[in-house]
Design goal:
The protein is of the alpha+beta class and 420 residues long.
Length: 420
């Protein structure tokens, strides 16, 4: 029953805004075909393609999105006749489409944003597994390695943001990740075709297209487009094996005049929770600052929630401080419950405020700023802040992700072994 209701609700929105859904375009198939689908979205800087695998076993449907080595399965997939709804409840996003005459799948991607829902049209072809081009073409050179990067997004600031671009090039496929202090791009996947670079990603929470040119001096330059945000960023990069980001352990700190961290916010049921509550006394406490809308926060929770569940009996506690799109408690709590369900989060999640960083900083006056979502604060058994890590390097960042995990495990073992 839920599947039918979900599809009817979603398709009512879809049909009401899509002229191609007319009767004369009715599909000549009985249901949505399984297998490979190549989805394409038109953007101001070119076509953004991504790959989906649709499978059906018994009554269950699954949709997986492929980005290089990443296979990301959607949270909910529903098919009713020739109509498809792929949902990401933990983000509040979904894909809604229907098969039309000729076999294409057409529809919209709906992204929840602070100002409302962004609707992006797409088309998809069945049986295609390539990313950008069906035929192979020789690249002009290999892009494998680390690149120092600079980005300018005039929608936010005229100032350049430094970062890194990590690329793995096997001579045919280029997979990489863009990294700045605010997070990473997830797995960008594509190819260098002559001197032209094409990369894209889609993982439910967001999508992006990266276009670039390999210049005569060996540098890269181009533009990226955010599918959910709808903005264009100019970028450039130069090979630099020594490129590095600012030390993420020194960006956020407790201000002078404060002894440590303290707060009191409602949990998802409206009950007030404070760091000074008895349940946290003499425990190592990990406090995460994030939001259900934040893709990097999802990466952090996918890592930290299993760790917490496996180690909570060692004297470990945790609290999630969630800064959501909506200032309305009930709506924010609903968004967080979907997030909690996805990652099996077994520690209290608190509604701390809205996503605006300046407003968020006012709720935690003892830290210098809320610079990045997520930020992780680690407190020892005596209540002293021992470590703050700004941001989270996700799996797409490769060695940076592994280094973070190694450092985290070592620190946690040390703190959990300490006496009060």
């Amino acid at each position: 029953m839920r599947t039918a209701i979900t599809l009817i609700t979603a398709l009512t929105t879809l049909v009401g805004s899509a002229s191609w859904a007319a009767e004369e375009n009715a599909a000549d198939v009985a249901t949505v075909p399984t297998g490979d689908w190549r989805i394409v979205v038109d953007t101001p800087i070119g076509e953004l393609p991504f790959n989906m695998e649709l499978a059906h076993e018994g009554d269950a449907w699954t949709a997986a999105f492929i980005n290089g080595p990443e296979r990301m399965e959607a949270e909910v997939t529903s098919v009713l006749g020739t109509s498809l709804v792929v949902e990401f409840p933990s983000y509040g996003h979904r894909i809604v489409g229907a098969v039309v005459k000729g076999g294409d799948l057409r529809g919209v991607i709906q992204f929840k944003r602070p100002t409302g829902t962004t609707v992006v049209p797409f088309t998809a072809a069945h049986g295609q597994s390539h990313r950008f081009f069906a035929d192979a073409a020789a690249p002009s050179q290999n892009l494998d390695g680390r690149w120092a990067m600079s980005r300018v997004n005039l929608a936010y600031s005229p100032d350049a943001t430094p970062g890194m671009l990590e690329l793995t090039d096997d001579g045919t496929i280029v997979v990489g990740a863009s990294m700045v202090t605010t997070g990473d791009s997830r797995f960008l996947t594509g190819e260098l075709r002559g001197n032209d670079l094409y990369m894209s990603t889609f993982y439910g929470g967001a999508g992006a297209l990266w276009r670039g040119t390999l210049n005569e001096d060996g540098t890269l330059s181009g533009q990226s487009y955010s599918l959910s945000g709808g903005f264009i960023t100019d970028w450039s990069a130069k090979r630099d094996a020594t490129a590095a980001l600012a030390d993420a352990t020194k960006l956020t700190y407790i201000k002078e005049g404060y002894d440590g961290l303290e707060f009191s916010f409602p949990d998802l049921d409206g009950n007030m929770v404070s760091l000074s509550d008895n349940r946290f006394a003499n425990k190592v406490v990990v406090v995460t600052i994030g939001g259900s809308w934040c893709p990097t926060c999802h990466d952090e929770s996918a890592f930290f929630s299993p760790y917490f569940n496996e180690n909570k009996d060692r004297g470990l506690e945790a609290i999630g401080l969630m800064y959501e799109y909506s200032p309305e408690f009930d709506e924010a709590a609903r968004a967080c419950r979907r997030y909690v369900s996805r990652y099996d989060i077994q520690y209290p999640m608190l509604i701390a405020g809205v996503m605006d960083k300046e407003a968020a900083a006012k709720t935690l006056p003892m830290i210098n700023a809320v610079l990045v979502y997520p930020t992780m604060i680690i407190i020892d058994r005596n209540g002293d802040v021992r470590h703050i890590h700004t941001g989270f390097p996700g799996p797409a960042t490769g060695e940076h992700h592994e280094e973070f995990k190694s450092d985290f495990y070592k620190l946690m073992d040390e703190l959990l072994a300490e006496d009060v």
